[in-house]
Fold this sequence. Notes:
Elements: H1 2-40, H2 56-65, H3 69-74, E1 77-80, H4 86-93, E2 97-100, H5 102-105, H6 110-123, E3 129-132, E4 134-136, E5 139-140, H7 156-182, H8 211-227, E6 233-237, E7 252-253, H9 257-273, E8 278-281, E9 285-286, H10 299-308, E10 314-317, H11 323-326, H12 331-341, E11 346-348, H13 351-363, H14 369-385
Parallel strand pairs: 1-2, 1-11, 2-3, 6-8, 7-9, 8-10
Antiparallel strand pairs: 4-5
Helix pairs in contact: 2-14, 7-8, 8-9, 12-13
Amino acid sequence: MIHASLLLFLILVISLGVIMIVHQSKKQTNSQQAQTSEAKEPTTTPATEQAPVMSQKELINHKIASMSLEEKVGQLFLARVPEEGQIEAIQANHLGGYLLFGRDVEDETATSLKEKIASYQAASKIPLLIAADEEGGTVSRLSRGTGLVAEPFKSPQELYQEDGLTSIRTDIQQKAAILHSYGIQSGLFPVADVATDPAAFIYDRTLGLDAQKTSAYIKTSVEELKKQQLIATLKHFPGYGNNRDSHVEIVYDNRSLEELQANDFLPFKAGIEAGADSVLVSHNIVTSIDNTMPASISKPVHDVLRNELGFQGVIMTDDMDMAGLAQFISQEEAGLAALQAGNDLILSSSFQEQIPYVIQGIEEGQYSEEALNQSVYRVLKMKMDAGIIK
C-alpha cells in the first residue's frame, strides 16, 4: 500500500515538472518572438507622417541665420545696372536687385532683354528683384525700347479720362503680363502724390485730382497689382505736392503737418490699407517733420510712416544719385545714413562705395545687426510674397 502511494506521488511530481518546463519554454519562445517583432518595427517616421512645414516667418529667419554679413547688407541695395561688369557686380556685392534705366533697354529686342535679365538671375545666389520705372506717360523705360511694347504705356491721367478706374485696372493687367514676360517684378508705381497745379513738377505723373479721388485710384491700383503679383510701390512719401524737382536741386517743403495729414497722407493710407508692398521716400526736406534732413535720410519722417500710418512693409529711398540728396551728403555716407533713418532698401548708383561703408558702420556699432536683420527680413518677405523667392 505504501509502495503504491509513493509511486503515485512520484508520478505527480514528474507530471508537474514536465508542465512547468513546457510553460517556461513557451514563455521564452513568446519573448523571443516579441523581441524579433520589435526589431522589425520601423525606426523612422511612417511615410504617412511628414515633418511639419515651416511658416514663411520661420523660412525667412532660417535663411537670414545662414547669411553672411556681406550677403545681408547686399540684399538692401536695389542697384542701378552698371555699364560694365554687371554679372561681377551682382556676385561681388550680393545685390538684392537691379533697377533698369533707359540705357539698359533702349537698344534691346524683346529676346535680348529677356536673356539679359535671365543672365542676371542666374548669377545671383538669392533671386534678384528686377525693377523698372513703369508709371506710364513720361516715365516708362520699356516704352523707349525698340519693340519692347506694342505701344507706349499711357499715363494715369490719360487712362482715367478714358474710363475711370476700369481703365486703370485693365492697364495694370496688360502691363503685368508684359513685365512678367521680361522677368520684371516691380514697375515702381503707383504715384500717390497729390498735385493739382499743372505747372507743378510731379503733376504729369499723378492722377492730377484731389486727395479723395487719388486715394481711390491708389487703392484700386494696389489691389490690382497684388492680384497680378507685381510689387506695389507708393511714391513719393510724404507727398510731393506742388513743389519743385528734387532731381536737380535741394527742395524745401514748408507745408504744415496738419495740411499733409489732411491731404497728402490720405492716398498713402489708402495704399497701405490695400496691402502695398513698399513705400518710396522722396529727398524733399519737409520742414514740419524734420527741417534739417532730406526725407530719405530723416528718422522722424520714417517714424511718421511706421508709427502714424502703420506701414510695416519695405521702405525704400528714391534714387540716391539725385541732386536733392547728392548735394546734401556724400554718396559714400548716404547709404548708411539711409539705413540709420529707417530705410530697408536703397536705390543706388554708388553701391560699390556705399556697401563697404555700411559694413564698416555695422562693425563700428553705428548701425546694429538687429536693425539690419529686420530690414533683410522685410526685403526677403517682399520677394517671397511676389513669388521671386519660391
